[in-house]
Each structure stands twice: as structure tokens, then as C-alpha cells.
Amino acid sequence: MTETRTAAEEVGTTRSALLEARDLHVEFASRGRRARAVDGVNLAIGEGEIVALVGESGCGKTTLARTLLGLERPTSGEVRYDGAGLGYTTKALRAYRRQVQLVLQDPTGSLNPRHTVYEAVAEGPRIHGLADERDIVATALSRAGLRPPERFFQRYPHELSGGQRQRVVIAGALALNPKVLVADEPVASLDASVRGEILALLLKLRAELGLSALVVTHDLGLAWNIADRVAVMYLGRIVESGPVEQVLTAPRHPYTQALLSVLPESPERIVLTGEPPDPTRIPGGCRFHARCQVLASGKAAEAGVDGRCRSQLLDILPAVPDAQAACHYAETVS
Fold it and tell me: 211 and 77 in one domain?
């Protein structure tokens, strides 16, 4: 795994938090019950830091990302940016979205086919009433790797390759000169040959502009190649987090171990039984215990924690830079 890593520099533990989730809960009504999509999350993204948020589909990572963007309001807890709590007035959100921008996974779906590249990138600056629109669009396209930018101004999305369309989406985010990008599966729809280019672009933007980023993905290989830290989410909570190299070379939580086992270089494939539980019916004890291979194998019983796994709630992990895991068994072997 270490041979394939092209990731960024190690992050110091003193880096100040720029974007934070503090004890964040987000619930939705579902068939007469409450679905706990985000069920107590602490997460901090430092200045110039890339954090990967990983987990299966339905684990709550997209809801968490939308809440960090101000697109969902938390049921409790708060989002903080640059030390201040996020306000939800139209004026406050307008100012906030100049600082924190979304990059969607599907450039074809997020670009209007009737709009030229220029119009797509100029949309944000127009909404915010920024002067020098043409210069802003040209600079954003250049930073996104579309050069010379004027050559792309009058082109339409269908005239571009998938990688070029994704660069246009990134340019649209860059046009507002944000401090943080929230990238939801930014390379999922791209060919393997193009993925590396987009990941390299994100790293270049961090190096040149000091951008921070939250990269939402189900792909731990992507996390390895781009992130400074990784947070693994399961059923609404972060169950393991820490420096990417530490977590992905020595995972402590059984769920992280299972996710890593699907990578080609993994010596053993771990097949989880069943599907993630319904977020309206989160089980007691460890929320992963019904699918946990450590509990099923008898190792948890040997360590004397099987009863705790089934009945004792785990603490919500704090937002700290050090490696940590919410797992009764991991506590006995650490």
C-alpha cells in the first residue's frame, strides 16, 4: 500500500480547526419514526488539511457533508467555521458559502447542458455580485487546469471529456475563492486514467492556495492517496479516525478492517454479513455488533467483552488528531 501513496505531507497536531462539527445530530422523519442519519459526530478540518470521510452508502456521510455546507440544519449540536457558530439566516449562509464550497460527484448532472463553460463558472460570482467577472472565470479555469481558459469559454458540457467537466465543476467552486472544499465522491464517475489527475489537482490546489478539503468517499484507496486524516463512519457515527497512514496500516475497528480488506493488496477478504441497520432502529451496545466479525469469531468473548459489545454504549469520539477507535475489543488490545 505504501508504494501507491501519493498523498500529502504529514499534518501537525497544532493546526487550528477551520471547519468543525460539534456533537452534531441530524434526524429525519421516516415512516412515523425518527431516522438518526447523523448521530453524534465531532469532526474538525484544519487549515490546509484534507480529511477523508469514508463509509458504505447510507452511513450518513453525505448528510454530514450537507450539514457542514449549511444545506441541512442540525437537530442538535453545531457547525462552526473559523471559531464561530454557523448562522442560518439568508445573509449568514450567503457569506458562509463564499468560504465553503461543494464539489459534486457527477459533473454531467451538476452542469446545465444549455450553459457554456463561462456561464457555469460565472454563476457564483454573479450571485454574489463580484466585480471583474471575466478575470475571475479565467483565473478559476486556469487553476482547475483548463488552459488557456479562453479556449473553453464558449464550449458546452457535451463537448468536454469527463475529466474536463469535473475541472469545470471545480473551477465553479474556485471562482468564489473559498477556504474549504467539500468534495462528494469527486472521482467516482470518472475513468481510472482520469482519477489520478483530479486527485493531483486537489493536492496542487491545497499546496498553491492553502485550501482545506473534506473528501467524502467509499474508497479507502482514494483516502490513502489524498488525505492527511481519515474518519470512518458507520450508521451515523465516526467509529475510527486519525492520521491516514496510521489508520489504514493498523486499523483498530473491525469495520475499518473489513473496508480495507477489499483493496487488492489485502491478504484476507472480510465479508460482512447483512446490511447496515435501519437508522430508525439503531441497535443497543456497539452499533456494529450485529455484523462484527470479531464478535462472530469468538475473539470478543475470549477478551471478555462480548457482553459489552451487545449492551454497553460507546462514547462519541472527540475531534482530536490522534488515532482513536470506538470499539470495546480494540480497547482490550491497544
Answer: yes
